[in-house]
TrEMBL record:
The keyword Oxidoreductase applies. GO terms for molecular function: nitronate monooxygenase activity. InterPro entries: Aldolase_TIM (IPR013785), NMO (IPR004136). This is Nitronate monooxygenase.
Length: 336
């Protein structure tokens, strides 16, 4: 687009890779990133990603088909590596000729990257450390997302600004790196692009788009919240490998602490396997998020949100959010 020349030039490798107009991904958000939001983002020139976190292969099959009816633009599918049906889900993506698969939630299990590449799709990976990023990019990852702890949902321990300084100088020349976590405005996008990122991923800013099916109560909670309300969960038992989750503080925050105690108790008394314990925790999150997003129970459900939630003030169409991000980025680059 001629009106965003400077931003488009810095995004060129990202847009070539994604096949979208702008290298702005809407990160997959379980229950939120379904056909409506995904197609709206892609139709707006961004890149929508279906969240398959809690879906069965049959549900994913339907969701991809329904999304295709709403957009002829490219979109991706996010698969969680610990999903018990991961290989079947990859099979569903193959059946539909999905162009981009995002593997989230840990190191991809053996054979998964190969199975995705076998049907010609591009693989997007996450990595918490530079060493792991290099390993994943060597072993088939086509692009990398670095995500800082400002983000909503499951988070690592390091901030986006530090990850960007650590990863981009050594990776950006030879690899495609997208930056996520805490991005609320286009000025930040301009900054990361100048550092070598080929694009960005946002979740929180898009969760309340007009096309998002999130319950009105969920959206209202976002509009009211400020950055300091989006807090990371705490780990109560050092044995339980609980990945922290950033969400708006509510009664559900305390319920998660009790859930951890319950699962830790099962480790002691029932000899529960660690992997099973972790799966139970993840099922808990999927259920809690559903309660907030779909049922509108904002007291007891999980209101996963990043620190950029303070910049979400009203319901706006996805296209308006995408274009204001591009305008802000372009204005920032023009001022340089
Ligand atoms: C409500 C919500 C649900 C999310 N669910 C998922 C998910 O299912 N899978 C995933 O890989 N990331 C998930 N994320 C992370 C987003 O994909 C994205 O990377 C993140 O929101 C980017 O940071 P930001 O929130 O600061 O924009 C979720 C984020 C939010 C806010």
């Amino acid at each position: 687009m001629s009106e965003f020349t400077k931003t488009a030039a810095l995004m060129k490798r990202g847009t070539d890779f994604l096949g979208s107009k702008y290298a702005i991904l809407c990160g997959a958000m379980s229950w939120v990133s379904e056909r409506n939001l995904v197609s709206a983002i892609s139709n707006a020139g961004g890149f929508g990603v279906i969240a398959c976190g809690a879906m069965t292969p049959d549900l994913l099959d339907t969701e991809i088909a329904e999304t295709r009816k709403l957009t002829d633009k490219p979109f991706g599918v996010n698969l969680i590596t610990m999903h018990p049906d991961l290989m079947d889900l990859i099979g569903v993506c193959a059946k539909h000729g999905v162009g981009h698969v995002v593997l989230a939630g840990g190191i991809p299990p053996k054979g998964s990257v190969e199975a995705i590449k076998a049907f010609g799709a591009k693989v997007i990976v996450f990595a918490p450390t530079l060493a792991l990023a290099k390993k994943l990019l060597r072993s088939g990852g086509d692009a990398l997302v670095i995500e800082g702890m400002e983000a909503g949902g499951h988070i690592g321990p390091v901030s986006t600004s530090v990850l960007a300084q650590e990863f981009l100088p050594s990776l950006s020349e030879d690899h495609l790196v997208f930056v996520a976590g805490g991005i609320g405005r286009g000025e930040a996008i301009a900054g990361y692009l100048e550092m070598g990122a080929v694009g960005v991923q946002l979740g929180t800013r898009f969760a309340c788009a007009a096309e998002s099916i999130a319950h009105p109560n969920f959206k209202k909670a976002f509009f009211r919240a400020s950055a300091r309300d989006a807090v990371a969960s705490v780990q109560v038992d050092p044995r339980l490998p609980v990945i922290p989750v950033r969400a708006l503080k509510n009664k559900g925050t305390e319920a998660f602490t009790s859930k951890q105690r319950e699962v830790a108790g099962l480790l002691d008394t029932e000899g529960l396997e660690m992997a099973e314990a972790q799966l139970q925790i993840e099922h808990y999150w999927a259920g809690a998020l559903r309660r907030a997003v779909i049922d509108g129970d904002i007291e007891n459900g999980s209101l996963m949100a990043g620190q950029s939630v303070g910049m979400v003030k009203e319901e706006e169409p996805a296209a308006a959010i995408v274009s204001s991000l591009m305008e802000e980025s372009e204005a920032a680059l023009t001022r340089r």
